[in-house]
């Protein structure tokens, strides 16, 4: 933000470039990284949903993998699977 940029410029001049990161920036950057990681895991769970949905992987195996790797309970996985592509009537158990 402009506030950090101005403060960084002033402090950088005073301290000779030794500022690493402001606390607010640190918190913001940590939050961004956590969001990226969560997004990657959601994408992987969605991949398992897709494999279970189209029959490439059995529902039980997909749910087991989701639980072991991504801490998604079988119950939660089944709820997600039921809500997955709700307009598509192709799913077969």
Could you please describe the fold and organization of this structure?
With 93 residues, the protein is mainly α. 72% of the residues lie in helices and 0% in strands. It contains four helices and no strands. The N and C termini lie far apart (50 Å). The mean pLDDT is 79.
Topology:
Blueprint: H1 2-15, H2 23-53, H3 59-70, H4 74-83
Helix pairs in contact: 2-3
What are the key terms here?
93 residues; 4 helices; mainly alpha
Q: Percent helix among the residues?
A: over 70%
Number of strands: 0
- The fraction of residues assigned to DSSP E strands is under 5%
Q: What is the CA–CA distance across the termini? A: 50 Å
Structure annotation, total helices: 4
* Radius of gyration over C-alpha positions, nearest whole angstrom: 22 Å
- Average pLDDT, rounded to a whole number, is 79
N-to-C series of helices and strands: HHHH
Structural class: mainly alpha
Low-confidence stretches: none
The outline comes out as rod-shaped
Short structural description:
The chain has 93 residues and is an all-alpha fold.
